[in-house]
Amino acid sequence: MLQGVYTATKKDGTIYYRSNITYRNKHISLGSFETEFDAHQAYTAAAAILKSHDSIENSYYHTYAIAFDKLVSLINFRDNGMYIPNPIYLRKNYFSYYLDISHELKFDIDDLFYYSGHRILKRQGHLYVNDYGMQVTILSRYGIQPHAVCDRDYVFKNGDPTDMRYSNIEILNPYHGVTVVKTAGLDKYKARIHINGNYILGTYNTIEKAAIAYNKAVDLAHSHGIDKNYPENYIENITGKEYADIYTSVVLSEKYMSYLAGL
């Protein structure tokens, strides 16, 4: 058997080949392969990477025998002394998470433990992780709502959407059911609720008033027998009395109120 290769057997009795390498007393699996030669090529490529000083980019364009994720893990282990199964490379005061060779996300070092154990996936342009059986967008870790739109509800301060460090993300609108709109050059706040389609609740002068209008619409929907689990807004910067006053006085659209009356 070639160096770094051993055989394994599938449930149906088929023989396949696995490759592994030991580095700094750590046993590292390099994957499964159809042939002994392919497994040995992976071992040879990994050994060359661990002995070299090549960057991730240079290693990628000269190595095709091992998966890109494994290549990043090996180079990080070589350079930083920490083996992480996910494609993470430690840098000074932050780390890079590689989706592929062309897409590198930057995170605060405080998030290292989380992303070491949660693989980032991409679907329909959205980045998410599987967390306790649920698909959770990575933006939700910053308090950004699922419906939020970049440059309207949140911004990347330095203009780089791959820089996911907390200091680079500013939330403009943290509330459910609220959209920031421009009216005569001024920010206004439109509230809406989705019940068999979107119902506009009104446009308000403050974001807090729009958020409370949405909460009121949710309460009215429940009181009219609509059994849907709507998220509600928590407004931190006003007192309980101020909240109650706004809740009582805020007016919802006639169209929405007529819809409820017809139920």
Q: Could you outline the blueprint of secondary structure elements for this entry?
A:
Elements: E1 5-9, E2 15-23, E3 26-33, H1 36-51, H2 56-62, H3 68-80, E4 88-91, E5 94-100, E6 103-108, H4 112-117, E7 121-123, E8 126-131, E9 134-137, E10 154-156, E11 169-171, E12 178-183, E13 186-194, E14 198-204, H5 207-223, H6 240-249, H7 254-261
Antiparallel strand pairs: 1-2, 2-3, 4-5, 5-6, 7-8, 8-9, 10-11, 12-13, 13-14
Helix pairs in contact: 1-3
- Work out the helicity level: 25-40%
Class by helix and strand content? alpha+beta
**Major sheet attributes:** 3 strands, antiparallel
* Helical run tally: 7
Q: What percentage of the residues does DSSP assign to strands (E)?
A: 25-35%
For the record, give the distance between the C-alpha atoms at the N and C termini, rounded to a whole number: 75 Å
Which residues form runs of ≥5 with pLDDT under 50?
Answer: none
- Kindly state the number of beta strands: 14
Order of helices and strands: EEEHHHEEEHEEEEEEEEHHH
The residue-averaged pLDDT reads 94
Overall form: elongated
Q: What would you report as the Rg, rounded to the nearest angstrom? A: 26 Å
Strand order of the largest sheet: 1-2-3
